[in-house]
Design a protein that fits this description.
This protein is mainly β and about 625 residues long. Helices cover about 5% and strands about 60% of the residues. The chain is built from six helices and 36 strands. The chain has a 22-stranded antiparallel beta barrel. Strands 3-8-9-6-7 form a five-stranded mixed β-sheet. It has a two-stranded antiparallel sheet with strand order 1-2. A hairpin with a 2-residue loop joins strand 18 and strand 19. It is globular and about 65 Å long. The two termini are about 20 Å apart.
């Protein structure tokens, strides 16, 4: 198998082999070994591969094989399995999806795809998340807590990192199809391989559904590709491409019904080169172009078309210096040029940033991290953030950790310059939002590694939060101001238990207090209690059955208390042959009637069946 990525950890050069997973299409049994090799390292916490036992931040690496076994079909459902992550959907498939990470606002979570950020205050990720499946991905990490020191603006709640699949070795892949309730059908194809020093991967998928309501159809294409090679032993070069095209018939909410069509198009292309200089230095340069288009067409007597476009050119340079076995230093520069077009109103923004982070191991059982970053926005001025953390391993299988850091969120160009056609007036005096947060936790292995328990307490304080202010109650014109303050705090608990070789379970629980400090009210769409878990039983070598449960309790939205809800999902798969598998899943098996967002009913019970062929 050819090497496709080089890194150095603990003073030695390590080879990180590519996962052979091609999204959610391949069987977990076939990819588990290589995927576990990949997941022995955490990338997001320091922007450099680290062993999990060294990481002080609270981070979860989602297992693509386990998600495939549980038949979790998309990114938004996968993220909802992580403690501290609240995923809120507006209705059925295709409706916007947002993340409330540790109680931070939805726009305060940053998505990093193939090494670059794809969202900010003016260019949201909501439609991307609504249509993102798991095809062509080999790494998903959720990094919780303020992360502006490494990733800049919009990372106040945390970071979700996604990497397009690498490829190597003989050609392999999978083809799958599924049909189900609401006239739903989907198909996907993924492949990867390598020739000599060149690796490649590609994936494409299509889904169509009518959802449960009339005139609520959704259609989506998703695709990705990566090609990379090692022309010399010390040089890696490559390129990625990832995109989505969605078409959604929006019916509005039950409170404010409307008829509209939402068309979205997102594409990200990167080219990169990574060089190893001597025995201590690794440097990586990434150039990227990100495009996001959104068109909202309303129908009826007051029909209108509103569109937004975002173009972002990115240059990211990072160097990792292994000064000694006990010291690693990571530094980098980032430059972005963004153009926003909102209904023919054009604005631009340039961003420059530099950061420096260090990991020190004074003794074998203690790791200390620290970092500092400076960001400068043409539109909003500059910001300085910092972060520190410590990890102590007092015994085998036990890790104690703590972090403290600051974050910021720059206003969008629409916030500062206004959008007159929306009734939004300019406010050039807007300042960035700011936050500070800390957490303490323990990661514990029990029963010779058959059980793992992770427990974390966190607290975040936000100030200068953006809030809408009406200036004219006749025309309803207004602007964004810095006004609110908020505090979020809570507990995250996650455990995995392998009861027997055939039975395993996974549990995740979040307790959250999220309050507006100004008027002492609770923040909306942040449930006090959230639970997610599943149980899997390998009945025979060919037959697997399982069940999952998702519970949300004690929340408010739309000025009212929302009902608690519990959903159950059932799934089963059977291997007809070594490379052919039949699948069946039932979503919302108890036919719970509930709303994740006020006024937007979630889908009732639905049944899906499909087949998968691996080659």
């Amino acid at each position: 198998m050819k090497v496709i990525s080089l890194a150095r950890v603990s003073g030695r050069f390590l080879v990180i082999l590519p996962a052979v997973a091609v999204g959610s299409l391949l069987r977990a049994q076939d990819v588990a070994a290589s995927h576990l090799t990949l997941d022995r390292y955490v990338v997001s916490a320091s922007r450099s591969p680290q062993e999990p036992s060294y990481v002080s931040s609270s981070v979860t690496s989602l297992s693509l094989p386990e998600l495939a076994t549980a038949q979790i079909p998309d990114l938004r459902t996968a993220l909802a399995t992580v403690p501290g992550v609240g995923v809120i959907n507006t209705g059925g498939a295709g409706g916007q999806s947002s993340v409330f990470l540790r109680g931070a606002n939805s726009y305060q979570t940053l998505f990093i795809v193939d090494g670059v950020r794809i969202n900010d205050r003016a260019a949201a990720y909501y439609n991307f998340l609504a249509g993102a499946d798991l095809g062509g991905i080999d790494r998903i990490e959720v990094l919780r807590g303020p992360q502006s020191t490494l990733y800049g603006s919009s990372a106040m709640g945390g970071v979700i990192l996604i990497d397009t699949a690498h490829g190597s070795g003989p050609l392999r892949g999978a083809m799958s199809g599924e049909v189900g309730t609401f006239d739903t059908w989907s198909a996907a194809l993924a492949a990867q391989g390598g020739v000599r020093n060149l690796g490649y991967s590609a994936a494409v998928s299509r889904i169509e559904t009518a959802n449960d309501l009339p005139a609520n159809d959704y259609r989506n294409w998703a695709y990705s590709a990566r090609v990379e090679g090692t022309p010399t032993g010390a040089l890696l070069v490559g390129a990625t491409f990832r995109g989505q095209e969605g078409d959604y018939e929006d019916v509005g909410s039950r409170v404010y019904p409307s008829t509209a069509r939402v068309e979205t198009d997102t594409a990200l292309a990167t080219v990169y080169a990574q060089a190893r200089v001597g025995e201590t230095l690794t440097s990586r340069l990434t150039l990227a172009q990100h495009r996001r288009d959104y068109t909202y067409t309303t129908f009826g007597p007051w029909g209108a078309v509103s569109s937004t476009e975002n173009r972002r050119a990115i240059l990211d340079w990072q160097t990792t210096w292994h000064a000694a076995n006990a010291l690693e230093v990571v530094g980098g520069l980032n430059f972005e040029r963004s153009r926003y077009l909102i209904d023919d109103a054009k604005t631009t923004d340039n961003v420059g940033a530099g950061f420096l982070s260090a990991t020190i191991k004074p003794i074998a059982s203690v790791v200390i991290t620290g970092g500092l970053r400076y960001d400068d926005f043409d539109s909003a001025g500059d910001a300085v953030t910092w972060r520190t953390g410590v990890t102590w391993r007092p015994a085998h299988g036990t890790k104690l950790r703590a972090t403290y850091g600051t974050g910021f969120g720059a206003p969008g160009t629409d916030d500062r310059y206004g959008v007159p056609q929306w009734g939004q007036l300019a406010n050039p005096d807007l300042k960035p939002e700011k936050s500070r947060g800390w957490d303490v936790g323990i990661d514990q292995e029990l029963l010779n590694g058959r059980t793992t328990v992770t427990l974390t307490y966190f607290q975040n304080k936000f100030r200068d939060l953006f809030e809408w202010e009406y200036l004219d109650y006749v025309t309803y014109e207004g602007h964004i101001v810095n006004r609110s303050r908020a505090t979020t705090a809570g507990i995250e608990l996650a455990t995995t238990v392998r009861l027997t070789d055939a039975v395993k379970t996974r549990l995740a629980y979040t307790y959250l207090e999220a309050d507006n400090d100004g008027d002492h009210t609770r923040l909306i769409r942040r449930p006090r209690h959230a639970f997610d878990g599943d149980l899997q039983f390998q009945a025979t070598k060919a037959w697997l059955v399982g069940a999952g449960l998702h519970l949300v309790a004690d929340r408010i939205d739309g000025g009212v208390a929302m009902e608690d809800y519990t959903t159950v999902r059932l799934f089963s798969s059977f291997a007809l042959r070594e490379n052919v598998r039949l699948k069946l899943r039932v979503e919302n098996a108890l036919n719970e009637h509930y709303e994740e967002t006020f006024g937007y009913p979630a889908l009732p019970i639905a049944v899906y069946g499909g087949a998968e062929w691996r080659f």
